[in-house]
Amino acid sequence: MRLQLTPDWPSDQDGAHRVQERLRPLVRNRPLPAPPRTLAGLDVAYEGGHGSAEDRVAAAVVVLDARTLEVVDRATAVGTAGFPYVPGLFAFRELPVLVAALEQLATTPDLLLCDGQGLAHPRRFGLACHLGVLTGLPTLGVAKTPLLGSWDEPGPFRGDSADVRDGGEVVARMLRTQDGVKPVTVSTGHLITLDDACAQVLAAAPRYRLPETTLPQPSAGGTPFADRLCRDALAAADRSGVPLS
DNA sequence: GCGACAG
DNA sequence: ATCTTGTCGC
Question: Which of A5, A29, A156, A182 is spaced 20 to 30 A from A237 at the CA atom?
Answer without folding.
Answer: A5
